[in-house]
Design brief:
The chain is mainly beta and 149 residues long. The protein is built from two helices and ten strands. It has a single domain (2-147), classed as Purple Acid Phosphatase, chain A, domain 2, CATH 3.60.21. Helices cover 10% and strands 34% of the residues. The two termini are 21 Å apart.
Length: 149
Amino acid sequence: MGVIADTHGLLRPEAIAALAGSDLIIHAGDVGDAGILERLRNIAPVHAIRGNIDTAAWADALPLTEAVQVQDFLFYVLHDLRALDLNPRAAGFAAVISGHSHVPCNESRSGVLYFNPGSAGPRRFRLPISLGRIRVQPGAIAGELIQLA
């Protein structure tokens, strides 16, 4: 499964190449342009949520959060981790996927994977340009961060 966030209207060729072969793509918000989602759908089915910059009419159809089931695992997707208002483990989530900070994160806390692919869009400050993959296998998930530039 490919995970991308904070494209801010820019879908780099390197991102398309890194997501090739994905069976599912999650976009954790700040898409920036509806065309980004169309291009991602050419690779695989897409689950996308709305980020704080997604204010145009096309983005009204995007939810603020989404629960995505992949095999036996449930993923909670939101844009800004600071808005998390539930206990993911108690709610049955195996992972929380977020964006917003542009800071990549792949860590487990109390048995829950917290995954932020970083930003795949325009560079901000000295933060890396990145996205990620989450490998789903029977009984286990594992995140991988991928630097693009």
